[in-house]
Design a protein that fits this description.
CATH superfamily: MFS general substrate transporter like domains
CATH class: Mainly Alpha
CATH architecture: Up-down Bundle
Number of helices: 18
Shape: globular
Structural class: mainly alpha
Number of strands: 0
Oligomer: single chain
GO molecular function: transmembrane transporter activity
Subcellular location: Cell membrane
Membrane topology: Multi-pass membrane protein
Protein name: MFS transporter
Largest sheet: none
Main location: membrane
CATH topology: Growth Hormone, Chain: A
Number of domains: 1
Length: 422
C-alpha cells in the first residue's frame, strides 16, 4: 500500500478498538451491571441500550448529508473528520470519570462518543476515493477492515487482562476501576493511531470553494434530490443497504447484551468476542478477493444469506455452544459485507461529490441502525425474550436482498440505467 493508503487503513486499526471495547464488549457489560444495581430488569436495560444507540445514529443520520455536501468543498473534509474523531476520543476518555451508579449519565456520555465515532466515519469512508484507485478499492477497503479486526484485539486483550486480574484479586483494583481503565486505553489507542490519517491523507477530489459554502451545499443537495432519477441505480443500492446493514449493525451493537440475557457469563462473552475478531480479519480479505473474482454484489448477497441463517439460528439459541457457533458465523460475514459495501459504493459515486454521496451512504447506514436496535428492544421488552427480537431482524435482511437483486452488477450497467432514467 502507498503511504496514504496505509494511513487511511490504519484509522480502521485505531477506531475499531472503540467498536469492540465500548460498543460491543466491556461498556455494555459495565452498563448492564450498573442498571442491575439500580434495580432495572435485564430486558429493560437491553432496551435502554438499544434506545441510546438509536438516538445517536438518528442524530448522525440527520447531519450526514448536509455536512457531507459541505465537505465536498476544498478543505472541509479533513476539518469535519478531525472534529468528530476528537469528539469521540475525548468523550470516550470521559466515560472513565462517570461513577457507575450514574447509569443514565453513562448512557448520555456514550451517546456523545457514538456521535463522534459515527460522524468521523462519514468522512473517513469518503476519503477512500482520495487515497486509492477504483481498481484497488476492494483490496484497500478490505485491508482497512482486516487491520481493524486485528488492531482492536490488542487493546481488547489488554483491557480483558486488567479486568480478569482485578476479578481474581491479583491486582489491587475493583472491576469497576479496571473497566474504567479499559475506557482510557481505548481513547488513547484511538487518538494515537488517528495521527497518520491526519498527517498523510488529503482531499484529492473536491468542488472549488464558494463565498457561501453552507448555502451552496443546501442548493447542491436540493439539486441532487431533484435529479434523483439520474442516480437511480445508486440510490437503489442505498435502499438495499439501508435494510441489510441495519441488521448487521444491530447484531454488532446488541450482541453482548443479548449474550448476557441468555445467562452467558461476562468472561465467556469477552473471549467469544475476541475470537470473533480474529476470525473476521482473514474473511474480510477473502471477501475482498472473491469480490474481485466473482463480483461485489454476489459476495454481498452471500453475506446477507449468512446473516439470515444467523437470525434463524438465534431464535433457537439456548446454550454457550450455540452462542459460540453464532459468533463464528458473524465473524465470517461481518467484515466482508461491510468492506464490499463500502468499496462497491465508492466505485459508483462521482468522485468530486464523494462526501455528499458518502453522506447519503452513512445516512442510510446509520439511520437504518435506528430501526434495528429499536425493533430488537421493543420486541424484547414486549415478549420478555431477546431471542424473538433477534429473529425479527431476518425481515431486514430479506428485504435488503430482494432490493439488491435489482441493482446493476457493474458501473457500466449503472451508466446505462442512469441514461435510460434520464
Amino acid at each position: 500500500m502507498t503511504s496514504s493508503e496505509r494511513s487511511w487503513a490504519l484509522y480502521d486499526w485505531a477506531n475499531s478498538a472503540y467498536t469492540i471495547v465500548i460498543v460491543t464488549a466491556i461498556l455494555p457489560l459495565y452498563f448492564k451491571s450498573a442498571a442491575t444495581e439500580a434495580g432495572i430488569s435485564a430486558s429493560t436495560s437491553t432496551a435502554y441500550w438499544g434506545y441510546a444507540n438509536s438516538l445517536a445514529t438518528l442524530i448522525v443520520a440527520l447531519l450526514a448529508p448536509i455536512l457531507g455536501t459541505i465537505a465536498d468543498f476544498r478543505g472541509f473534509k479533513k476539518r469535519f473528520f478531525t472534529f468528530f474523531s476528537t469528539l469521540g476520543i475525548v468523550f470516550t476518555l470521559l466515560l472513565a470519570a462517570v461513577p457507575i451508579e450514574q447509569w443514565f449519565i453513562l448512557l448520555v456520555v456514550y451517546l456523545i462518543t457514538s456521535i463522534g465515532f459515527a460522524g468521523a466515519n462519514v468522512f473517513y469512508d469518503a476519503f477512500l476515493v482520495d487515497v486509492t484507485t477504483e481498481k484497488r478499492m476492494n483490496r484497500i477497503s478490505a485491508n482497512g477492515f482486516a487491520l481493524g479486526y486485528i488492531g482492536s484485539t490488542i487493546p481488547f486483550i489488554l483491557s480483558i487482562a486488567i479486568i480478569v486480574l482485578a476479578q481474581q484479586s491479583v491486582i489491587p483494583l475493583s472491576v469497576t476501576v479496571a473497566s474504567q481503565i479499559a475506557f482510557v486505553i481505548t481513547a488513547l489507542w484511538w487518538g494515537v493511531f488517528t495521527i497518520p490519517m491526519l498527517k498523510n491523507v488529503e482531499q484529492k477530489y473536491y468542488v472549488d470553494r464558494v463565498p457561501k459554502p453552507v448555502t451552496s451545499s443546501f442548493k447542491k443537495l436540493l439539486f441532487t434530490f431533484k435529479n434523483i432519477k439520474v442516480y437511480r441505480p445508486l440510490f437503489l443500492f442505498l435502499l438495499a443497504y439501508f435494510f441489510y446493514i441495519d441488521g448487521v449493525n444491530t447484531i454488532i451493537k446488541m450482541s453482548t447484551a443479548y449474550g448476557s440475557d441468555l445467562g452467558i457469563d461476562s468472561n465467556t462473552l469477552l473471549i467469544v468476542l475476541f475470537v470473533t475478531q480474529v476470525v473476521a480479519a482473514p474473511f474480510s480479505i477473502l471477501f475482498g478477493t472473491m469480490g474481485n473474482k466473482y463480483g461485489d454484489k454476489r459476495m454481498i448477497m452471500i453475506g446477507i444469506c449468512i446473516y439470515i441463517f444467523i437470525c434463524c439460528y438465534a431464535f433457537f439459541l439456548d446454550s454457550a455452544l450455540d452462542f459460540w457457533i453464532l459468533a463464528m458465523l458473524v465473524g465470517v460475514a461481518q467484515g466482508g459485507i461491510q468492506s464490499l459495501s463500502r468499496s462497491y459504493f465508492g466505485k459508483l459515486v462521482p468522485k468530486e461529490s464523494s462526501n455528499e454521496f458518502f453522506g447519503f451512504f452513512n445516512v442510510f447506514g446509520k439511520f437504518a441502525a435506528v430501526a434495528g436496535p429499536l425493533l430488537l428492544g421493543v420486541t424484547a421488552q414486549i415478549s420478555g425474550n431477546t431471542n424473538t427480537g433477534v429473529f425479527a431482524l431476518v425481515i431486514l435482511f430479506v428485504i435488503g436482498a430482494l432490493i439488491l437483486l435489482r441493482v446493476p452488477n457493474t458501473k457500466e450497467e449503472v451508466s446505462v440505467q442512469s441514461t435510460k432514467s434520464i
